[in-house]
Amino acid sequence: MRKLDQSMTPLFSALKEYHSKNVIPFDVPGHKHGVGLSELREFLGSTVLEVDVNSMKCLDNLCNPIGVIEEAQELAAEAFWGDYAYYVVNGTTAAVQAMIMSACEPGDKIILPRNAHKSATSAIILSGAIPVYIQPEIDENLGIAMGVSLEEIEWAIGKHPDAKAIFLINPTYYGAVSDLAAIARLAHRNGMAVLVDEAHGAHMNFHDDLPEAAMTVGADMAAVSMHKTGGSLTQSSILLLRDGIIDPKHVKTTLSLTQTTSASYLLMSSLDVARKQLAMNGGEMLEGVLTLVRDARDKINKIEGLYAFGKELMDGKGVYDFDETKLGVNVRKIGLTGYEVYDILRDAYNIQVELADLYNILAIVSLGDTENSLNALVEALEDIAKKYKKEEEIKLQKSILKNPDLIISPRDAYYSNKHAVPLDKAEGEISGESVMVYPPGIPLIVPGERITRDIIEYIKVLKEEECLLQGTQDPYADYINVLGSE
Ligand SMILES: Cc1ncc(COP(=O)(O)O)c(C=O)c1O
């Protein structure tokens, strides 16, 4: 039930008012409305730099919002069905970190799926929480991790009844959604908080055909990447909280541990305007998005060798629901890896997709797409399937998403003595760092885990495919830091 006027943009309006006044700036930023950075001002346009300002009375302060930022956050809380909303300008990474650090103290257990993003891993190091990794369901045919089943959560709660929180992803990068409502009920019956990474779900609350958003099914907190699918500027994000298990005052204090004291008004006002747009016109806009993406999916599925997966994957377990705006295409049968198709799309067709893995590419379809953009993608894929097709399809690798053993806590491993060994010689060692494939930023190994031969071999395959590995001090991941002295 709405109480607030969602057509209002308190923060954006205050920023426009400030702009209209031609205030003489003797505060930072030192470019002083762009006068001191004319090359960028000419390219971006003067207004962008004129409103790139710092906190002041009329614009409130993100560190302690009591004016227009507070009003904007209240509107966001209502639009996303939370009791509280906090603007975050350090990306959803900072929101995930604050969420886990608010719910867990050092030594508290947190149940989370292995395919959690690296921000969850860093949050675990920062908070000192002990991860209890659960296995997401794996679609062996597509080679990707999906959601987690209720049974897997029941098993983890049975083994770790003292866990403090459960962390879930809603939806995964590729669009899979777990049975969040049932998991939240189960977690609450066992006194555990439900924390949800909604980096890819900012749009979901605004159309009935989309999966349910975390706040609507009883989650305690959700970290929402407004900048990914909600329409706001890159790095802007919202942290949501429901009254109950976690104290809102504690969340505010925790956020201020890592959040900048110079929050960007470009980012924050984009959150205000994007929230208004979703609340006022989201339903209609998303109806258009769904029509476009459904049509594109149908057309791609008529191209020989390509498979644009969608709602047919729903199995009540790892895919309880599916976000159709995630247009994942399995390309294995045309004999090309996802990485190759990703590059061909960019180099030969001027199309940038979100990510690739060995077998798939992922296109994100969102509020800014048009019939033309989707036609360009479909036509390019049609062309690629003809021109670049190879005789042999890409062989399915054995899935490596089996959890390695956690020997010591990620935080203890992070602070232990370490030395570098060649990756090939690291079998049996305890890792001192993460190895991540980016995107989607899922760790293959995290600090404190025992390195297995399977993991080494899989990393070697990824390196041969020239995919981007991150997390190791060695930029090429030829060496990995392991625990102990040389
Ligand atoms: C599932 C997931 N969570 C969190 C993040 C972190 O978001 P950000 O890049 O805004 O820090 C990402 C980024 O890709 C993500 O995919």
Structural key phrases:
globular; binds pyridoxal-5'-phosphate; four-stranded antiparallel sheet; seven-stranded mixed sheet; alpha+beta
Report what the structure shows.
β2, α6 (118-127) and β3 form a beta-alpha-beta unit. A seven-stranded mixed sheet has the order 1-10-9-8-6-2-3, with helices on both faces. A four-stranded antiparallel sheet has the order 11-13-15-14. By secondary structure, the chain is α+β, with helices and mostly antiparallel strands. α4 (68-79) packs parallel to α11, α5 (91-103) packs across α10 (248-258) and α12 (338-349) packs across α13. The protein has helices at residues 10-20, 38-44, 46-50, 68-79, 91-103, 118-127, 150-159, 180-189, 226-230, 248-258, 265-300, 338-349, 371-387, 410-414, 453-464, and strands spanning 84-88, 109-113, 130-134, 138-139, 144-145, 165-169, 176-177, 193-198, 221-224, 237-241, 307-308, 321-322, 326-330, 355-356, 360-364, 418-422, 435-437, 442-445, 469-470, 479-483. Helix content is 36%, strand content 16%.
